[in-house]
Amino acid sequence: MPRLTRSNRGRALGLCLALTVAVLPALAAPAHADEIPKAPGHRLVEQYAGAPAPARPVPGDPPPQHPHLAANGRSGMHADAAGSGTYPWNGPLGNKPQVTSEKMAALGGECATVTFDRDGRIVTVCGTFTGFLVKLLDPRTLRTLAEYKLPQRPSTVEAITRLDFSKIFKDTSGGAYSYLDDKDRLVLADSRQHVVRLAHEQAADGTWRFVVEDDWDLTGQVPHDCVSWTNLYPSGECDPVTSVMPDWDGRIWWVTRQGRVGTVDPESGDIRSTRLAGEEIQNSFSVAEDGVSIVSDHALYSFEAAADGTPEVVWRQTYDRGTGTKPGSVNQGSGTTPDLFGAEENYVAITDNADDRMNVLVYRRDPGVPESRRLVCKVPVFGSGASTTDNSLISHGNSLVVENNYGYENITSLTFGRSVVGGVSRIDVREDGSGCDTVWQSAVRSPSTVPKLSTANGLLYFYTKEPNRLGIDAWYLTAVDFRTGEPRWKRLTGTGVAYDNNWAPVTLGPDGTAYVGVFNGLVAVRDEGD
């Protein structure tokens, strides 16, 4: 029997998925889908470990509220404009936590960015193999209230026609990053290179629907000869739009994979852009009143807009990008969305891609700072030769939390009971800004999630997986004490590939529920009685 190498394992997976996609019309999901199926072995693993944790609020000021975003905690994948990954309300404390889930598609269905409108309804984008779906969900039942289909991404067509599904798993474009604005409208860039603003509204009969309020065409600024079912072998250039965010003046900023940075003026429709030649942008970006922070695979940038809206570089700082892409990274560069934070000074933090050990890097944001004082600290984290992250840091006050994603690439990485080397560290900037110190290190194995902190209860939330000698792939929501790094409790969410979060975040809802996007849909964990 031939050995199943990474290459032919990927082709086998690709063939399987392609055949499934081919019969998807016959497998169309009903209006109210089922729970996500668990793989065999879920009764043989621990359902719950630890004990309920008392709520111990973490002192400190929250990030400034962005005037053009939904309230902090409700607006996007990283919780706020600063990318802090913090929530001002509770998550589950571990009191007999209950798990529910919703299967969003026959294949795929992962709901990554989860936002909440004023009434607590979920507005999310779920990725299926027939295209991304914008969904309005009931936050308790996860039932779909309304749905809007986005255009299929070129990477999906390439994956199916070339039987190479790594193209999907490393594609962050087409709506994966989106935000909810101050009027509860979802803003995203679709695979046509259009920025779209969607409102949701309720009809007299009680039904809901999405309405396109605005549609700005970027193709005058962005190459768009992309793979499609009618253009399988394009001869021109295709540059997918990775992410969008508003600045403090209301302009909508956008970035592309091939290093274009642009703005849309929502009032006039004017579009302006510049390009970081030879650089790639695969992450989202963060915004404060003092500017826009963007990281490419070569450097960290601070941007501002000129009078006509054209992005202008305020300062640029290169970092150690290493000599290649590590297992656990999307590209050869930083895997983090910048974090804007600081109790005494305005800081920005990212990680680099240094070959041996990844470093957490903290810089001063003030444009007047001499370049010799820009870098505050450079702190190596995790083990030699096994250190990387492709997820945002958590930031609160002068503290940062970073997880190790080394070894995770896609849903095939951790099957048959495997896991990553793991590791989580907390690093604090000193009050006088003279450097940084490692506060604690934890062995928690969080393969690919965007972790979160509840400042109301002092718990960090990770999505974890331990090695299993029986080959059972058991996934857990795990709560860790922010102050000490000690795990407090964990709750099984499910078993098998369908419960792999595949880079999706933990999101804390205003009612105290923790949501996790997983390969087959969305999981909710809440304390009994909540």
TrEMBL record:
<dbReference type="InterPro" id="IPR011044">
    <property type="entry name" value="Quino_amine_DH_bsu"/>
</dbReference>
<feature type="compositionally biased region" description="Pro residues">
    <location>
        <begin position="54"/>
        <end position="66"/>
    </location>
</feature>
<feature type="region of interest" description="Disordered">
    <location>
        <begin position="51"/>
        <end position="95"/>
    </location>
</feature>
<dbReference type="InterPro" id="IPR011047">
    <property type="entry name" value="Quinoprotein_ADH-like_sf"/>
</dbReference>
<keyword id="KW-0732">Signal</keyword>
<feature type="signal peptide">
    <location>
        <begin position="1"/>
        <end position="28"/>
    </location>
</feature>
<protein>
    <recommendedName>
        <fullName>Secreted protein</fullName>
    </recommendedName>
</protein>
